[in-house]
Design goal:
20% helix, 121 residues, 2 helices, single chain, elongated, alpha+beta
C-alpha cells in the first residue's frame, strides 16, 4: 500500500492562500519576503495489517509563518479552516524572533492510505 504524499497536499494548501508570498521547506539565511511560510511533515505508521502493509499513517504538519509587521491572524485562520476541512486537528502558538512575528501551526491526523480520509487518534 502506498502512503499518501502529504507534502504535496500541504504545498497546495499553502499555495491557495494568496497572502503568503514565500513557501519553502527550509529556513532561509535571512528573511526578505513576507509573509513567509516554512513547512515540514513527519509521519509514522499508525496501523499495519497482517502482511505489514501500512494501512493508516499518523501525520504531523508543522507550518511556521513569519511577518515583519502586521498580523498573521488572517492567514492562520485560513490555514486552520483548510486543514480542519481535511480532518486535521490543530495546535497554534506565537512568538517573536528578532523583530519578526512568528506563528507556529501544527496539524495532526491519521490518514487511511486506502480511502484517503483523515481521522483523529
Amino acid at each position: 500500500m502506498e502512503i499518501v504524499n502529504l507534502k504535496t497536499v500541504v504545498y497546495q494548501a499553502l499555495k491557495s492562500v494568496s497572502d503568503i508570498k514565500q513557501i519553502t521547506t527550509t529556513y532561509p539565511d535571512s528573511f526578505t519576503i513576507f509573509p513567509s511560510a516554512v513547512y515540514y511533515t513527519t509521519h509514522k505508521a499508525h496501523f499495519r495489517d497482517s502482511d505489514q502493509q501500512e494501512l493508516q499513517t499518523e501525520w504531523t504538519v508543522t507550518i511556521d509563518l513569519f511577518i515583519n509587521e502586521g498580523s498573521l491572524t488572517s492567514i492562520t485562520n485560513q490555514l486552520m479552516s483548510l486543514f480542519g476541512d481535511m480532518g486535521f486537528s490543530n495546535d497554534i502558538s506565537d512568538s517573536n524572533v528578532a523583530g519578526i512575528n512568528r506563528t507556529v501551526l501544527r496539524f495532526t491526523g491519521v490518514i487511511d492510505n486506502e480511502t484517503r480520509r483523515v481521522s483523529q487518534n
